[in-house]
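Issue: ligand-bound run for 3-hydroxypyruvic acid - logging full I/O for the record.

Environment: standard queue, default settings, no custom constraints.

Inputs:
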Amino acid sequence: ARMTLKNALARGEKGRGFWLTFPASSVARSILSTVKGFNWVLIDGEHGMIGDRDYYELCNAVAQYGATPIVRIPNAEEALVKRALDSGAHGIMTPMCHTAEDARKIVSWNKYPPHGSRGYGPMFCGASFGISEGEYAEQADDALMVMVQIESRAGVENVEEIAKVEGLDVLFIGPYDLSKSMNVEFGGEEHSAAIARILKAAHDNGKKAAIFCGDGKTASKRFAQGFDMANVTTDIGSLVGQMGRELADSGGD
Ligand code: 3PY
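Outputs:
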């Protein structure tokens, strides 16, 4: 199966993506066909305006342009992982991973037996890879990416144990939730130290480290710091930001 992001990260290349929050494949297609160079897209079923009925169309649209579609599910539940994987997601991001036990469960939900507990029903999964149902079933456990978000005080305190969990590919930092959960200033000393600790734990254990970024300059700094993967913007953030700048340029306020 095609593994754009997984292969790129394995070669030491950076994962540059964007957050998709609109339930519209037209938006994903227009961005990916015009702005080349994104190798993944986060389809946000947690905070985006996206539900599980949208996953199939969005995953297939993203994959068609050679980017890896990752679905963020709303919560750490087995049924939600199953719905997203069965739509043809190439990876799942599960929010709020607090302990190694959480991480082991999440990995198990993402893998077929004997590696995990994923139920069998891959009728719609092969399409986004351009392969048959049977080929998908054989390749899925290796090809799919398992990502968990570290975004709580407990998650940071347990991160060295979480990072040891086999089958996990990426530790993905949610910096906003992290600052809220820790009750520390965003970008302040404790926040920065927690982020550095997660990055180190990931790399010490052969895992990739990723972080949410609101803009390209922030992403560039995170790549320089050693992060493997970051989104460089969100669709809604770019739209609102650019519209505000255009209004200002017109002389309005
Ligand atoms: C966070 O920063 O908390 C995120 O999960 C990004 O959406």
